[in-house]
Structure formats: C-alpha cells, structure tokens
Design a protein that fits this description.
single chain, 12 strands, about 350 residues
Length: about 350
C-alpha cells in the first residue's frame, strides 16, 4: 500500500486562517453512569471524564452554522470571500434527508459560493475534505474555502454510549477557513491511504445488543475474514506509512512535531493506535481536549485545532500533525506550521 502524498509548499501558499468549534455542554460520565446510560466499568475504560451532548432542540445545522460563523468571524473574512463551502458528517440519520446542509451553511455565513457540497466516508472525511478544498483553491481564483464537520448522535438511531467499549460518540461541530492569504498556520502537506481489504470491519451484521453494534461487526470480520494479528498489522502499517509520507513531503520529522492531533476515540485506542506506535508522550497530543468532549466524528481534528488556538498552546514555527482514521479503512494526515 502506497499513500498518496502532496507537497503544498512548492506553489502559492495556503493557510488555515481560522478554526472554531461549537461544542454543546459536557455530560459528566459519573452522571451518565448514575442515569444508567453506561456501565461504570465501560465508562472507566474510555478514560473520558465527560462527553458533549446536544440539547434536543439543537439541530445539526444549528451546530454547523454556529461553528462556521465563528470561524469566518475569526478569519476576519466576509462571506463573499468564501468561494467553496464543504460540510462533512459521519452519521446520516440525524442529518436532514434530501437537504444540502452545505448550502444552508453558506447561507448562514452569507457566502454566494459557486461550489457547496456535502461529504462523508467516515471519520477521516474532515481531513480528506480539507485536502480537496486545498486542491480547489489552487485550481481556482477563490480567495478562501470553508470546511465544516459535525454530527449529532441520537436514539433510536444509535446508542452513543454502547456502540463499542473504549469510546463514546459526542455531539458537536467544528470549522476551518482555508485561505490563500496569511493565516494562523500554513498548510505544508497532506497524505491519504485506503485499505479496502479492511472495509468489512464495519460491515453491518445482525445484533440485538444495540442499534449500531460496532463490536459485533468487528468480531464477525475477525472470525470470518481476517485474524486479529493481521488486522492490527495492517492498521499500524497503514497509519505509519501515511504519516511518514506526509512528513516527508513537508520535509520534517516526527521529532520536529510539537503537537499531534489524533482522533478522540478513547484512552485504550489513543495508546494502542497512536502514542505507542509513534513513540510520543500524551503531553504532545490533544488528549486534554478529547478527554472532556468524546468522539465528535470527523470534527475531532478541527475541534482540537481550535482548542490549541483558544488555549494559546502554539508558538510561531510549531509543526502540527493532524491524524484521522475512518471507515473503509482510511487514513488521512495533514501537516501544518504555525506562522
């Protein structure tokens, strides 16, 4: 498997002008345990202290529009400067049917954009879409593009607390503005890779345990298609090769990276999938953000980037490595340098 990698430093500069998130109030996991939403044992396994849950009156469009407005305001950019708007989500059942959320977001930020599209494909779709937005900017005369990712996870469609031990799905939206002009961070490179032989890891199987039983899907695949050792080997090699390709295009090493943004999929996966294979301490990751939000799907990376901005964690010259994994199986990696 060979990743596709792109060097964004050789041509006109592209920059993250801003990042912003709209994250609902967090529900403490202690409260979730008392309410019978999750067992005490499963709550402890995740490592989270809280998970964000939207009010019943909050819609996915509400969250996405709020994040988009915050990002464009921070970028000090008029909506008329936004030439393309992308909306990314993972879970289809709380997205309005037969409706283009991207055009509604464009209306919210007053962008008469020529291009508005919804994207999906799992939790790697946010970074995948950021890469597509970069290509569009380079091929057009647009000044900027807006990428918004978000999800709301609700019964009866899904039980956010009991899909799979180790993480909990969280509600929220986050947005970035990608600009030709100077911004918070310059886009250095991106790399993507897909391993379709692992697509069956998330193929639906019969289950009476919960509306979406990710555990049952994985167990069926490991029993009938591919052994655990082989799967873990492919997952690890896919991740490291994609990261290596992105870092190589950016002409930096992992040792040069100040901040590693990883998916917010719980403490067991944090160490097994990322920190241990990469040999990096948790202090270089954005776990402090993930630990109080939960897994917001494709919005994890943009939300964590906004967290770095909001907490003034970065200095000029810092390299940020953004990592996403998703259904398929996919890896997407983006490298930024703070200006």
């Amino acid at each position: 498997m060979a990743p596709s990698a792109i060097d964004f430093t050789s041509g006109p500069g592209l920059h993250i002008a801003s990042a912003a998130a709209r994250i609902p109030p967090a529900l403490p996991l202690e409260q979730a345990v008392r309410d019978g939403l999750i067992s005490e044992e499963d709550a402890k396994i995740t490592g989270y202290s809280a998970v964000t849950v939207a009010k019943e009156s909050d819609t996915l469009l509400d969250l996405a529009s709020a994040a988009a407005l915050a990002a464009t305001t921070r970028a000090d950019m008029s909506g008329t400067d936004i030439g393309a708007v992308f909306f990314v989500s993972v879970f289809p059942f709380t997205r309005p049917p037969l409706y283009n959320v991207a055009t509604a977001v464009a209306e919210a930020v007053r962008s008469p954009c020529a291009f508005a599209a919804e994207m999906s494909g799992g939790c790697a779709a946010g970074l995948n879409t950021l890469t597509l937005a970069a290509h569009r900017l380079l091929a057009s005369q647009d000044r900027a593009a807006l990428v918004v990712a978000g999800d709301v996870w609700r019964q009866p469609h899904i039980d956010r607390f009991n899909c799979e031990p180790g993480y909990i799905f969280a509600d929220g939206a986050a947005a970035v503005v990608l600009s030709r002009e100077a911004g918070y961070a310059r886009l250095l490179s991106a790399a993507t890779l897909t391993d379709p032989t692992l697509s069956g890891l998330h193929a639906p199987v019969p289950s009476t345990r919960t509306p979406v039983d990710i555990t049952a899907r994985a167990h069926a695949f490991l029993k009938n298609r591919m052994g655990t050792d082989a799967v873990l080997g492919r997952l690890r090699s896919g991740l490291t090769s994609t990261i290596d390709a992105a870092l190589s295009q950016a002409r930096v090493s992992l040792a040069d990276v100040a901040h590693v943004i990883v998916p917010a999929i719980g403490e067991p996966f944090l160490y097994r999938n990322y920190l241990d294979p990469l040999g990096i301490p948790v202090s270089r990751s954005t776990w402090d953000y993930s630990e109080v939000t939960g897994h917001t799907g494709a919005a994890d990376q943009f939300g964590a980037l906004a967290h770095l901005v909001d907490t003034d964690r970065c200095s000029s010259g810092d390299v940020i490595l953004m990592i996403a994994e998703g259904l398929g199986f996919q890896w997407s990696v983006v490298v930024l340098e703070v200006q």
